[in-house]
Amino acid sequence: MQKAEFRNERDKFFKEVENLTHPNETLVKTHCSYCAMQCGMNLRVNTVTNKIIGVEPRYDWPVTVGKMCPKGVTAYQQVNHPDRILKPLIRDDKSLKGTKEGFREASWDEAYDLIIKNFKRLQAENGKDSLSVYGGVSMTNEKCYLTGKFARVGLQTRYIDYNGRFCMSSAAGGLNRSLGIDRGSTVPWTDVHETDCLFIAGSNTAECHPTSMFRVWNVQERGGYLIIADPRETPIARRADVHLDLMPGTDLALANGIVNLLIQNGYADEEFVNNHTNGFAELKELVKEFTPEYTSELTGVASEKIIRAAELFGKAPNAIVMFARGIEQQQKGVDNVSAYVNMSLVTGKIGRPKAGVATITGQGNGQGGREHGQKADALPGYRKLANPEHVKEVAEVWGIKPEEMPEAGVSAYEMFGLMEQKTIRALYLLCSNPAVSAPNLNYVREQMKNLDFMVCVDFYMSESAEFADVILPTTTWAEDEGTTTNVEGRIIKINRAQEPLGESKPDWKIQVEIAERMGRGQYFSHLKTPLDIFNELRRASKGGIADYSGVTWEKIDKQDGVFWPCKSEEDPGTPHLFLDKKFYHPDGKAKLFALPYTPPAEEPDGDFPLRLTTGRVVYHYLSGNQTRRIQFLHDMCPDPFVEVHPETAARYGIEHEERVLLYTRRGEAVYQVKITEAIRKDTVFVPYSWGHEKSINLLTIPALDPISRMPEFKACAAQIKKVQAANHELKKVQ
Fold this sequence. Notes:
Blueprint: H1 3-18, E1 25-31, E2 40-46, E3 51-57, H2 70-74, E4 89-91, E5 103-105, H3 108-126, E6 131-135, H4 141-154, E7 160-162, H5 169-179, E8 197-201, H6 205-208, H7 213-221, E9 225-229, H8 235-238, E10 242-244, H9 251-264, H10 270-276, E11 277-278, H11 280-287, H12 292-299, H13 303-315, E12 320-323, H14 325-328, H15 333-347, E13 356-359, E14 378-379, E15 383-384, H16 388-398, H17 412-420, E16 426-430, H18 434-437, H19 441-449, E17 453-458, E18 470-473, E19 482-485, E20 490-494, H20 507-520, H21 530-541, H22 553-559, E21 562-563, E22 590-591, E23 610-615, H23 631-636, E24 641-644, H24 646-652, E25 659-663, E26 668-675, E27 683-687, E28 701-704, E29 711-712, E30 716-722
Parallel strand pairs: 6-7, 6-16, 8-9, 8-12, 9-10, 11-22, 12-13, 16-17, 17-18, 23-27, 24-26
Antiparallel strand pairs: 1-2, 2-3, 4-5, 4-18, 14-15, 19-20, 20-21, 23-30, 25-26, 25-30, 28-29
Helix pairs in contact: 4-20, 4-21, 5-15, 9-12, 9-13, 9-15, 12-13, 16-21, 17-19
């Protein structure tokens, strides 16, 4: 039997199985709660107990066609987990902040009364902007939208930002700057396996987005090429036709070197460049110095690899450039994104099927969550607070006067600086765990501890919740409904499978009730369901770049999702961007950027000779607050580790599985060593999904990108010592 024939028979069998249900059981069609692949799944619900008892893959979902990863297979186990917070908690002993102790159960009324009392007192004494909101993008579009409105209208504060600042903000900055629009992919994911060349930079795709890998492998099976840029020989890099094993933080030099070769070797599409881009002359002049030899010197990648990568990409009839946090979580992350986009623009491999650029989104709603008003400077529909016309349009939908709209705030990490200055006195935190995910954690935790008042909304006791004065129990993704926007820019529907556990409430309902108690109910009381919120979001986004006005829940179900922009109910949406070769800048042209190379903020030296980089493993998600509680996932990877090259380990006298002290100028942690040739000799790697003393972000540097304000998680100077020899003085942060 031929391979294609076998696959057809297999898929037919599984579709038949999918339609079978057991007695006392029903299937609820929905999507995974984790990464932006948003894999299709059916949650199995016991109709007697009305509880979720299992999961089945959805073979009708066109993006992942039945594929699920270890996290997705076990995601349902978080819903009825014994660690769920089922009632509001109030901390009576403030001396225990930063621990799980000192809380007692309370009624919703008592918790709300305490919150409103403190919010009103702090605003009366210190001004409206003494309150802050820190959101997240593992929520539905409805919740993300309402969080922005809640901060600016319900609490009337300018200080709101979100955890996407540590995830997608550089992609947003680079795509907006180069293309005039920030959508995760210019092509639908169903194009990926049909392209001729995939260039993937800074993504451990096989572990972070494993359900996309069948499309990646299919490119090679069809005779296409796979090029990977990554400091580590990840599973996908091992299969690559070219692995560009660059030093962490040197992506800009690598991209410039490849663009230089594309131009010099005649792979530039002059007709496309002349008619549809600006800035080519400046780019061509700047990249001239990035010869293969010079690029190799800067990046550590062999020059012949750079030459081969440019040749494969240049010759391919169609190619897609994909990138993720590896290039984005740097102090020049926006420049990195624009530099890689230059590759597609110079060769004209964009604005048609099977060719373009894509950022491999990390969080489940990393796309929609940044479009509708959680960012410090943004309003729904990707409007800008700095634009008076945009403010006027959104203010009209919200029912406020334009002059009542708060000004732009600051980025997530910068909010902690304002806490230190006592400009921000209170924090309302939801769907985020900055006590694990922020850089320079010793500093961040100290600022959270010193807040006058903190509210955390979560369904588990996270490391960040340990700093709260009040914890409000929210629902999991399967206990509510709404939309998310996946890795492609496809708006999809999440469906409720179970009623909220205990006394937990959805985030949107909590915000409406707090706003009402703050005396702002006239702006929120009409929002009684997620559909009410979505319909208001549609109106608020109408005319913006991220226009959802033509999207309905019915259209989502009918079409297997809707790609934005979608500007009317007759509009089916936009799976492919730029088919008319019109970009989203005023003149309709894309921008090529000439970007001088700068090294990472902190280069290795005599005291700290190694390069530290961070990332994920397949078994855990973001801060690990959910996945570390799932027994199977915990058993597969119970603790973080530090990857060290054999020659580096020999130089330090370190054995495999020995525990060592890893430290930087900001902090230290002890990890078990994993000796592997998959890491560069000058680099060490630690996954970041653990908290407390295991968190690698105790060590990372808070150097921020000037545009995106993204911290440089992927590169800083580090040192390693055997634990018994680690009697040293750490340098304090100035």
